[in-house]
């Protein structure tokens, strides 16, 4: 089994937002201008 299958990666790029405590906050694949910044602003307050 490849690492992509082990972690359920279905696309590239693949992003994971992890909290300072090590908890996975959000996971998504794909790219769009400004998406990373928007997702961080939505989840990190």
UniProtKB/TrEMBL annotation:
InterPro entries (alphabetical): Thioredoxin-like_sf
Protein name, UniProt field: TlpA family protein disulfide reductase
SUPFAM superfamilies: Thioredoxin-like
Superkingdom per UniProt: Bacteria
